[in-house]
Write a structure and sequence with these properties.
Layout: E1 2-6, E2 9-12, E3 17-24, E4 33-38, E5 45-50, E6 57-59, E7 67-72, E8 77-82, E9 91-98, E10 110-113, E11 117-122
Parallel strand pairs: 2-11
Antiparallel strand pairs: 1-3, 3-8, 4-5, 4-9, 5-6, 7-8, 9-10, 9-11
């Protein structure tokens, strides 16, 4: 199982970025995928989630209305479109495969994690 996040970078406040999470080594459309982020000195936190078929999504309150999660099962890739970025969105963003049947907001629900991609938002 491999998950690789990409697309991070440096952007000014108010700008946009699109992150990608490319998956391999498993049947991609059997699994929900989540995005999490970890800012320096802080715990990892939930950002967004998408069900296996894409019909169900969920967002942290802090990103709702600004971020959009989507997936392309033909490409085994999940995307996170981030608009109206704020300095407090600065973090390493990682994607993970949801393994269990509990709420998608908790890191314990995910067993496989990809290496993250750094997003830096300047003020």
């Amino acid at each position: 199982v491999q998950l690789q996040a990409s697309g991070g970078g440096l952007v000014q406040a108010g700008g946009s970025l699109r992150l990608s999470c490319a998956a391999s080594g498993f049947t991609f459309d059997d699994y929900a995928i989540g995005w999490f982020r970890q800012a320096p000195g802080k715990e990892r936190e939930f950002v967004a989630y998408i069900s296996w078929g894409g019909g169900s999504t969920g967002y942290a309150d802090s990103v709702k209305g600004r971020f959009t999660i989507s997936r392309d099962n033909a490409k085994s890739t999940v995307y996170l479109q981030m608009n109206s970025l704020k300095p407090e969105d600065t973090a390493v963003y990682s994607c993970a495969r949801k393994e269990y049947t509990g709420a998608p907001f908790y890191t314990r629900e995910y067993a496989y994690w990809g290496q993250g991609t750094l997003v830096t938002v300047s003020s």
